[in-house]
Amino acid sequence: MTAQTDTTGPVTTVYKVSGMSCGHCEGAVSGEISQISGVSSVTAVASTGEVTVVSATPLDDEAVRAAVDEAGYELAGKA
Fold first, then answer.
1. Would 41 be classed as within a structural domain?
2. Per-residue pLDDT for 70 more than 60?
3. Which residues span the domain enclosing 52?
4. CATH number, domain at 69?
5. Cα distance between residue 19 and residue 39, in whole Å
6. The HMA domain covers which part of the protein (predicted)?
């Protein structure tokens, strides 16, 4: 876990998700992650497997993993 020195602004984290192949996949992953408390924006890109999440505070990796799993995909880690 990385210590945050600037807690006044939003935190942007990029995750790698395996298994996404289309716009429906992007929507499913984005929809699940956006339900995590504190998340203000989610952008999933199937072609790269990257999911960019903007949140008020750093997110718990296990919460993100559970959301991605619920959508039917696998969290491969942070990009």
1. yes
2. yes
3. 11-78
4. 3.30.70.100
5. 22
6. 11-76
Helix/strand/coil for 75: strand
Q: How many Cα atoms sit within 13 Å of 76 on the Cβ side?
A: 11
Assigned domain for 1 exists: no
Token pair 């919460």: residue: 63
Q: Residue 17: what residue type?
A: V
Backbone angles phi, psi at 41, to 5 degrees: -160, 140
Residue count (the chain): 79
Q: What is the DSSP letter of 48?
A: T
pLDDT in tens, 36-64: 999 999 999 999 999 999 999 999 999 99
Number of domains within the chain? 1
- Asked if 31 and 39 touch (Cβ cutoff 8 Å), the reply is no
